[in-house]
Amino acid sequence: MAKLKPFVVVVDDDESVCRAIRRLLRSIGIAAETFASGYAFLDVLSSMPSYQPDCVILDVQMPGLNGLEVQQALSGSGTPVIFITAHDDVGVREQAIACGAVAYLHKPFDDQLFVKTVLTVSNAISS
């Protein structure tokens, strides 16, 4: 049976960041869908029970729900979360990791590190 390619969701209010990450992930064979807000993502997640991303990449600071609030809404789902942020706040990083985030990367991040992080999470899921 063929292995399904990983499916990753990116939630970031910056459209250019979403586009760049989606393009990067697709270039390595990972399906990616983007959302401009935490509300939009959680609406799809709650309205479609079969919608199960393998990993969620969250921006920390977004209007409406911030990344930490989206992470909290996902708690108990088992969905790995990777945070990306342009702001270095040690307290926020510690809170994200304490709540189960698998990584916390600073924008602009190194593409190779980002890809390695996503592939590590994806491989752990498919194992």
For the structure shown, list the relevant keywords.
single chain; 127 residues; alpha/beta; Rossmann fold; 5-stranded parallel β-sheet; 5 strands; 19% strand
What general outline do the C-alpha atoms trace? globular
Strand percentage? 15-25%
* Helix and strand run: EHEHEHEHEH
The termini sit apart by 14 Å
Helix content: 40-55%
Residue-averaged pLDDT: 91
- Contiguous helical run count: 5
CATH level 1 class label: Alpha Beta
| CATH domain fold name | Rossmann fold
Could you characterize the architecture of this molecule?
The protein is an alpha/beta fold and 127 residues long. 44% of the residues lie in helices and 19% in strands. It is built from five helices and five strands, in the order βαβαβαβαβα. The chain has a five-stranded parallel sheet, with helices on both faces. The longest helix has 16 residues, at 111-126.
Summary, kept brief:
The protein has five helices and five strands.
SSE order and pairing:
Blueprint: E1 7-11, H1 15-27, E2 31-35, H2 38-47, E3 55-59, H3 67-74, E4 81-85, H4 90-98, E5 103-106, H5 111-126
Parallel strand pairs: 1-2, 1-3, 3-4, 4-5
